[in-house]
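Form 12-C: Joint structure prediction
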Amino acid sequence: MKSLGNVRRSFAPWADSSARPYIAFENVTKRFDDFTAVDDLTLHVFEREFFSLLGPSGCGKTTLLRMLAGFEEPTAGDIFLDGQPLKNVPPHRRPVNMMFQSYALFPHLTVADNVAFGLKQEGMARGEIAERVGRMLKLVRLEQFASRKPHQLSGGQRQRVALARSIAKRPKLLLLDEPLGALDKKLREQTQFELMDLQEELGLTFMIVTHDQEEAMTMSDRIAVMDAGVVRQVGTPAEIYEAPSSRYVADFIGNVNTFEGRVTAIENGMADMAASDGFAIRTHAGAHGRSGAHAYFAIRPEKIEVTRQRPDQEHNAVEGEVWDIAYLGGLTVFNVKLDSGTIVKATVLNTERGVEDPIGYEERVWLSFTPDCGLLLEN
Amino acid sequence: MSGRWSWFNITSVVIGFAFLYIPIVLLVIYSFNESRLVTVWAGFSTKWYVEMLGNEGLMDAAWVTIRVALAAATVATVLGTLAAIALVRHTRFFGRTLFTGMVYAPLVMPEVITGLSLLLLFVSIDMDRGFWTVTLAHITFSMCFVAVVVQSRLVSFDMALEEAAQDLGCTPMQAFVKVTLPVIFPAVLAGWMLAFTLSLDDLVIASFTSGPGATTLPMKIYSQVRLGVTPEINAVSTILIGLVAIGVITATLVNKRRMVADARAAAAR
Amino acid sequence: MAQPEQANRTGGSEAFRRIAIVVPYLWLLALFLLPFLIVFRISLSEPVLAMPPYAPQFDWSAGWQEFLEALSQLSPANYLWLAEDALYRNAYLSSLRIALISTALTLLIGFPLAYGMARAPERLRPILLMLVILPFWTSFLIRVYAWIGILKPEGLLNQFLMWIGVIGEPLTILNTDTAVYIGIVYSYLPFMVLPIYATLERMDHSLVEAALDLGCTAFGAFWKVTARLALPGIAAGCLLVFIPAVGEFVIPDLLGGTETLMIGRTLWIEFFANRDWPVASAVAILLLLLLVVPIVLFQNAQARAQEKAK
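Section 2 - Result
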């Protein structure tokens, strides 16, 4: 099988069936009254992994994190950390630290005292604390703010104090709850890379909750896409993007066009599908293709070609009218309305400066793609 | 809200404050009046202050009042803070509705009823009325005010702070003492001050629940006022007003200094 | 995210949780609810010349039979008497009337003050706010007392009015209902101003500008936008003035006349002067019933305001 995208580094313990998971959720369920936040969930995360829980709000990702930190107990199932069951271990006894969404900086303490809080609690010697705090503040570049109170800091500075505080105790596992949610876009992008460097440098396991797919894609070794208390798919960013297991995942990460239809035939691993939009699709059958079955064909906008002439292929080509054009600089997005009424999104990379006679509004165009470009999905 | 500060606005503010402050100012001015006739100005004098200090009954009452207020405010602050925690943190326990009702009811209860009911309790358990009964009564109604003040702060308290403390190795109790208490401390202090002044101020409940030897200052003032206005009472009032004014203004200034420091720090970053 | 139950979050400190609930709970049961039940029970008793001055007495050591016997002697006679006697009826009605009129007057003075404060330059507002709160911290009794010297026939108000020549003869204000109105308005003005100010201060002035832009006159914009949006504050302020005013004792006692009937004062007289504890208790229970309606209204208004704040 060919590799999907680039793996950030040669690190894939999940592919090794003998590797012991560092964190294991085994059939964990968590109910609040009649609301099921986490539903019979099993998930394994490995040491030194940068793992993201991605999903819309209410999908149970924060609850998962809070169960790991000890703020919630599972209603059913077990959680193991480094092979040890976490049941009934109170938060202060867990070798886990958390960076809170609101940062939860102690407002009555200075930056230095915030960072020192956990160390003092541990009973570390004074000199050692001072030295460690100094190092932490240097790491997050806040040395000159040591004696400030949290409310005298900017949002980005607070975020870094929270980070310093949560790694001061050298936890093996750091939980991050929407750590960058309160920052503006530029700062967020910069901080993403800082977090990645930090994780690699300290050799920690990071488990991060986010609803921002771009953030998850940028930083993670693996992502778990969650929905309504269950994990819909776990995989590397490339796997999630290129081989989503369902329309939900495909739709959640990036843009996607889906065509509904019926599989008419399967031959040599290739499936023929009659799209209800009135054209024939030929693609790899994959795991989901069954002859005669109702299916969906998902394809990313950048994998669709836009031409004036009818391409020379029997399958995978459909005609429509340009409905909308959005010029985004690096690329141009075409919204093309098929004769069936469906709007299809296609992006075209602008590789040259200025094009003679560009495709305009209301023009008739052909959309086409190769059999490798899309994916057949069951649901 | 903003917009133009019109003449109408300025006038209504000036009239409003004149109404609020002229009686107090006149009271203070006439405490320095030479004449016993409170309404005729006969020259400046501080003799009523001297007389007041020599009035043993008044001084005794003041001393009783301060002791009651200190004791009542302190106990009420502890109880009220606990009640606030129960209200905010514990969403479910047996009889919570009754508890909530009992915390809020004294806030709107006419003092005559509170006073009467407590007296009848003390009578029916045969408790001698005096310093302790007044103190118990004051604790009971002022703890509810403390509870409301602390509650409003606790509601906006970010629970993540306590969780963060536990995450960093605190037991729940340590997290409360090291993080929650310091953070809500201004509200607790405000609750104490409120309880203290409520107790200092109270006439009606004290009249019902007090006994021989435990006459509070408001009771003393009241019995003298019923006989007519005297410059001595003006002098006592002036001192009380002065103390409150100093307290409130100091608190405001301290706050302001802190705010200025914060603003400077913010500007410097 | 789902809001987990907060009780769970404090984790295992079960003992502390119990203390926080049990201690204040028991205190209030013993010193708030129990006294109340005693008042209710005494309101069903008969006055006697003894100490304590009511009958029947429950003798808990006398056994069950005796207790039932005593229980059967309780009767609603005091309530019937209160209902029949015009004096008490009038006291209740006049309490309501005085409280209503005073509340209206307080609103009349308080709203323009709150409005003026809300429109004041921003740097002035904290000072103005402190000036409104400051009297609240000073003794209620003293503030009422201050008016005696002003309102009495040879008092400062009459002296001033005669000096500027508005009147030739001193007006009788002290010991009338008017003095009671003045006293209530004066004492409770901060309660009216603060909630109204709070709603007005939060209000976005561009709403008024939008109304003007859409063709309202200045007064129309004020009436249709500002006043309308201040309604929750006005309601809260009115209740905060009305409720304590109904049961007020000090103000009618010091500023009102002998014919100023207010229920708080009636209770006081029944208790201290007539030593009729059962009737005083019945008066208290009825006063409380009178207040239940506005209190429930107030609670609802607060709950709604909290909902809105969320």
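Section 3 - Comments
The longest helix of chain A spans residues 185-202. Chain A touches chain B at residues 69-71, 90-92, 96-98, 100-102, 104, 106-108, 117-118, 121-122, 145, 148-149, 151-154, 157, 165-166, 169 (CB under 8 Å).
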